[in-house]
Design brief:
- The chain has 2 domains: about 35 residues; about 35 residues.
- It is flat.
- By secondary structure, it is mainly α.
- It has 3 helices and no strands.
- Helix content is about 80%, strand content about 0%.
Length: about 80
């Protein structure tokens, strides 16, 4: 996962603190849930499917490379 830096307004920060205390969530969990809900509501279903498919393909490609690298390392033993 990538890391991003954001600046919160004072009002948003206070609301987040209250929400996190009431719901026992981390800021990362809340941010991911909130952004996903916002984006899914503002993109078409086709755009959402396309974006998620691209994410799955890149993760699969990375996993395949990592898996193959580990197999190659084992074969060297």
């Amino acid at each position: 996962m990538s890391k991003k830096k954001i600046e919160l307004s004072t009002n948003v920060e206070m609301l987040i603190k209250k929400y996190l205390n009431l719901n026992d969530l981390s800021l990362d969990e809340l941010t991911n849930r909130a952004l996903k809900a916002y984006l899914v509501n503002h993109l078409s279903s086709t755009q959402v499917k396309e974006a998620l498919k691209q994410a799955d393909e890149s993760e699969s490609s990375y996993s395949n490379k990592l898996f193959q690298s580990n197999i190659d390392d084992l074969n060297k033993l």
